[in-house]
Write a structure and sequence with these properties.
CATH architecture of the largest domain: Orthogonal Bundle
Strand order of the largest sheet: 1-2
Shape: flat
CATH class of the largest domain: Mainly Alpha
Order of helices and strands: HEEHHHH
Number of strands: 2
Low-confidence stretches: 45-56
CATH topology of the largest domain: Cytochrome Bc1 Complex, Chain D, domain 2
Radius of gyration: 28 Å
Structural class: mainly alpha
CATH superfamily of the largest domain: Cytochrome c-like domain
Number of helices: 5
Strand content: under 5%
Mean pLDDT: 81
């Protein structure tokens, strides 16, 4: 037997040590994940966090420019701040603008979020929110691209 190779007991001891480290690492990672699931704000110093991307240079998070709410990109209309307060606290405003729906579908979506995503009861705000969304982000009646018009076609040569 070569002298530079570890013996069986030494190898077994090394593997036990490595196994112990891996188990400790697994426990730490699972504890971290559990804390994030059950207490999502445990890492934050404060409950209200406004990042620099949510404020403009003046520090005003609710500034309106050219009829658009600067922080969210939503159209300035009646019910905007109710939508911002109730919807963008959980998800991005782009999720609102890309999912253009009818009044019935918005109400179904809100009900789904309440049943599965822990959305609170909106009460009278639900009508304000749905009216805002239906008015400013109705379903679009066009396909993937606009129909080509006045195209000067040419023949391909062989």
């Amino acid at each position: 037997m070569r002298k530079d190779r570890p013996t069986y007991p030494e190898t077994r001891k090394l593997y036990r040590w490595m196994y112990g480290l891996v188990m400790i690492l697994v426990l730490l990672v699972s504890a971290f994940i559990s804390m994030n699931i059950f207490f999502p704000h445990w890492l934050y110093q404060s409950e209200t966090i406004i990042t620099s991307s949510e404020t403009n240079s003046d520090g005003d998070a609710d500034k309106i420019e050219n009829g658009i709410h600067v922080r969210t990109g939503l159209i300035d209309a009646e019910g905007l701040m109710v939508v911002v307060q109730n919807c963008t606290s959980c998800h991005s405003a782009s999720l609102i603008t890309q999912n253009r729906m009818t009044e019935e579908r918005w109400n179904e979506t809100i009900k789904w979020m309440q049943e599965t995503q822990n959305l609170w009861e909106l009460g009278p705000n639900q009508k304000v929110i749905v009216d805002y969304l239906v008015t400013n982000y109705p379903p679009m009646k066009k396909g993937r691209r606009m129909v080509l018009k006045d195209v000067d076609w040419y023949e391909l040569e062989d």
